[in-house]
């Protein structure tokens, strides 16, 4: 695999970052994971808006303009021969003297890597077993708006899912409400309303989440952001997750209890995948 590292394209065995880099030492950085279809990044502007917001909040330095980064990304996709893939962008603050203080940080590291896409059935939505994690996210934590390089609550929650034989874990916030999945946003159906958690609950403003809300708006489906506890999913007419890698995934069961199924989930999944495959699509969300 060819990797983009600090302005150069190198083979993965030569893609190394210093052991004194703060991303390695403290998780002091950000990342984004983008869906690439037909060689084009889906929702590039939305991902870059979130990345730029995180850079401003954490006071990081991006060594290239976003326009340059876009060109580098396209070249990386071309060099790897992967028109359909996941592109991960990682930015670290760089190197400082030992300690938490970011003062005097030098040599920010910017890395882009390519990863395979899962094979999806364009006519049938994937279904996952999900658990509720014991780990919690803080309410109104501004860091949850960004993909920081320190995701230990999500790591620990995913470990719980692995141990339970589940494919995903839902994290609650400190008020007991659903925040998000480890790599996903959570949706459920109440009668004719498509519901999802509000961002202040601890949900990442996911690009796929936004795409599904836009698809619902185009189809005159009412959407609502609301706080909900896990039992709400058990009582719902159906529930699903959204994420970059898989698009829409139906929640088959939560904590061992099967959830009801709605044909709307499959319809939204098909519509989302069809949108990605539209001829001439620029792969950005209007």
Overall description:
With 286 residues, this protein is α+β, with helices and mostly antiparallel strands. 28% of the residues lie in helices and 30% in strands. It has seven helices and 15 strands. It has helices at 22-26, 44-58, 66-80, 152-163, 207-218, 230-235, 263-276; strands at 2-5, 8-11, 29-37, 40-41, 85-92, 109-115, 126-137, 168-173, 178-181, 185-190, 193-196, 222-225, 239-243, 247-254, 257-258. The strands form two sheets. Strands 7, 8, 9, 10, 11, 12, 13, 14 and 15 form a nine-stranded mixed beta sheet that branches. A hairpin with a 4-residue loop joins strand 8 and strand 9 (178-181). The chain is globular and about 55 Å long. The model is unreliable at 280-286 (pLDDT under 50).
Mean pLDDT score: 95
Radius of gyration from the CA trace?
Answer: 19 Å
Estimate the helix proportion, in percent. Answer: 25-40%
Distance between the termini: 33 Å
Give a count of the beta strands, DSSP E runs of length 2 or more. 15
Percent in strands: 25-35%
Shape: globular
Give the topology string: H per helix, E per strand: EEHEEHHEEEHEEEEHEHEEEH
Largest sheet: 9 strands, mixed
**What would you call the structural class?**
alpha+beta
Quaternary structure state of the chains depicted: single chain
Total helical elements: 7
Low-pLDDT residue spans: 280-286
């Amino acid at each position: 695999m060819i990797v983009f590292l600090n302005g150069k394209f190198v083979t993965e065995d030569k893609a190394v970052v210093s052991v004194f880099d703060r991303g390695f030492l403290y998780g002091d950085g950000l990342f984004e994971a983008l869906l690439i279809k037909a060689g084009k990044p889906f929702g590039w502007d939305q991902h870059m808006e979130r990345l730029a917001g995180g850079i401003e909040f954490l006071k990081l330095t991006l060594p290239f303009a976003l326009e340059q980064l876009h060109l580098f990304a396209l070249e990386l996709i071309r060099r790897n021969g992967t028109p359909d893939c996941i592109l991960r962008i990682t930015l670290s603050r760089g190197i400082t003297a030992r300690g938490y203080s970011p003062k005097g940080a030098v040599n920010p590291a910017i890395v882009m890597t390519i990863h395979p896409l899962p094979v999806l059935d364009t006519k049938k939505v994937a279904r996952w077993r999900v658990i509720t994690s014991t780990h919690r996210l803080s309410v109104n934590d501004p860091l949850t708006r960004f993909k920081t390089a320190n995701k230990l609550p999500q790591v620990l929650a995913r470990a719980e899912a692995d141990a339970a034989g589940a494919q995903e874990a839902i994290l609650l916030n400190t008020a007991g409400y659903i925040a998000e999945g480890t790599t996903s946003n959570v949706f459920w159906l109440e009668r004719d309303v498509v519901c999802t958690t509000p961002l202040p609950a601890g949900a990442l403003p996911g690009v796929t989440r936004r795409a599904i809300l836009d698809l619902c708006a185009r189809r005159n489906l009412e959407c609502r952001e609301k706080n909900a506890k896990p039992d709400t999913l058990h009582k719902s007419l159906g529930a699903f997750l959204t994420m970059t890698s898989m698009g829409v995934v139906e929640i088959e069961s939560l904590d061992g209890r099967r959830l009801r199924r709605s044909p709307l989930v499959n319809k939204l999944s098909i519509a989302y995948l069809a949108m990605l495959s539209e001829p001439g699509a620029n792969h950005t969300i209007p």
